[in-house]
Amino acid sequence: MSLDSVTTSVDEAVSGFFEPIAERLGEVVFYTVPVGGTDLPLIVAWLVVAGLVFTGWFGFVQLRKFRLAIDVVRGKYDEKGSAGEVNHFQALTAAVSGTVGLGNIAGVAVAVSIGGPGATFWMILCGLLGMATKFVEVTLGVKYREVHADGTVSGGPMHYLPKGLKERFGSRGATFGKVLAVLASIMVLFFGLFGGNLFQANQSYAQVSSTFGGENGFLASSAGAVLFGLVVATLVGLVLLGGIRSIASVTSRLVPAMAGIYIVACLVVILGNVTHVPDAFQTILRGAFEADGVAGGVIGALIIGFQRAAFSNEAGLGSAPIAHSAVKTKHPASEGLVALLEPFIDTVVICTMTALTIVIANPASWGEARAGESIGGVTLTSDAFETVLPWFPTVLTVAVLLFAFSTILTWGYYGLKAWSYLFGKSKASETVFKSVWSLFVIVGALMSLDSLISLADSALFLLSVFNIIGLYLLAPVVKRELDSFLEYVRARKAGEITDGDEDQEPVKTTV
């Protein structure tokens, strides 16, 4: 029996077993209600409402403190002797690498096809709201993290939910928080294995094999898939062995590089059609308030835009605090401010650049997609770039590889922290996880396991339900932490303290 037939049989067997489960859970998690002629997933409304609430609660912190966030990333308010493993910039790039991915390339193209150009406006607005949610969850992630005896750090919803709720509400809060933490860990682990690993490996392999050799080339064969999987798995395994320091070292170089390559390519298309730029902006603004989409007119554009942004930047899902918790700081809110830059980079900048490129280039395939034809998102984006850059598929392949590799790395770290919370932080336990994680890269190159990936999507957004409940209950803690950091910034500016002073309370260390 050939490897192709074996993998096909496994694919079909897994799909046959999990498809009913994935379909049922998807119906629950992504339950929709009719609004203005289209369907609104309640989970998207849950995320957007959280962004609105936290934006109001913290007085538009994402706008008022944007410049301060930049200063923190630059190291202006670093403190000597702070517990942690990475600096602010490395923590930011590690978290961004988990959100910037194929969705920024393909998902946005689908959004401006279904919701029309106006979906871009609502996508930007949702990204701005998500900045406030990200600020809240990351501040809590650093506040309640655990700094182990060996200097490594563990953080995320599995830590701040039980600790924070116990601190605020006593034993009942501790019990409730523990239940939420276990459920959150399971959701992170499940999505990490299938959505953050297997899916990324599968899609990047598909792009590479189609670009280099086509259907009849070596890469399209089972042997080519195994070779691709082995190479990527080896690279991933080597980086994961070094922990968050190693991951941050790679992503701090990889994220700026991949974002730079992609943004430059977008700018080439935009500048190549510079006379169409004013019309493109007018089209986007007009489409945001007029019936210009396939589904639901203005409301459809709004829903599609919000949905794309919520799915892309992961604000409120509880994943980013895991990476940000490793930062070197004595003030949790300092990293919360850094984290609010994440949705800005992911959604307001990169997703918008994709949308603007497609609207300006206006490829024939986009018109066909808006007319109702089924055309893949990657194809639409590639066609837009090809109007100016005929050789762009090669660049797109490089971008997809970089995006996928960085996502696998970051979700490997997230998955490891969830695994350690559930099964203990021992060397043997971590070795088992890293071995399984690397194996899944190879499996991803060979098989799609679509039903498991659909199930993973449901798990990820179910995580937001557990997480945001905790964010609402712990928001007063975040307010105190923000006030504390702003007072520290004021004192630093006034020269009352310097970065060498040791009068700040360090983060408590637990074993």
Outline:
One of its GO terms (cellular component) is plasma membrane. This protein is mainly α.
Task: Map the helices and strands.
Layout: H1 3-29, E1 32-35, E2 38-41, H2 42-57, H3 61-64, H4 66-73, H5 88-99, H6 102-114, H7 119-143, E3 146-147, E4 153-154, H8 157-211, H9 222-241, H10 243-272, H11 277-289, H12 297-313, H13 320-324, H14 332-339, H15 341-361, H16 364-370, H17 377-386, H18 392-423, H19 427-446, H20 450-494
Antiparallel strand pairs: 1-2, 3-4
Please describe the structure with a list of short key phrases separated by commas or semicolons.
20 helices, Na/Ala_symport, two-stranded antiparallel ribbon, transmembrane helix, mainly alpha, single chain, two-stranded antiparallel sheet, 511 residues, disordered C terminus
Give an overview of the whole structure:
The protein has 511 residues and is an all-alpha fold. Helices cover 76% and strands 2% of the residues. It is built from 20 helices and four strands. It has helices at residues 3-29, 42-57, 61-64, 66-73, 88-99, 102-114, 119-143, 157-211, 222-241, 243-272, 277-289, 297-313, 320-324, 332-339, 341-361, 364-370, 377-386, 392-423, 427-446, 450-494, and strands spanning 32-35, 38-41, 146-147, 153-154. The strands form two sheets. It has a two-stranded antiparallel ribbon. Strands 3-4 form a two-stranded antiparallel sheet. The radius of gyration is 22 Å and the shape is globular. The termini are far apart. Mean pLDDT is 82; it is low at 502-511.
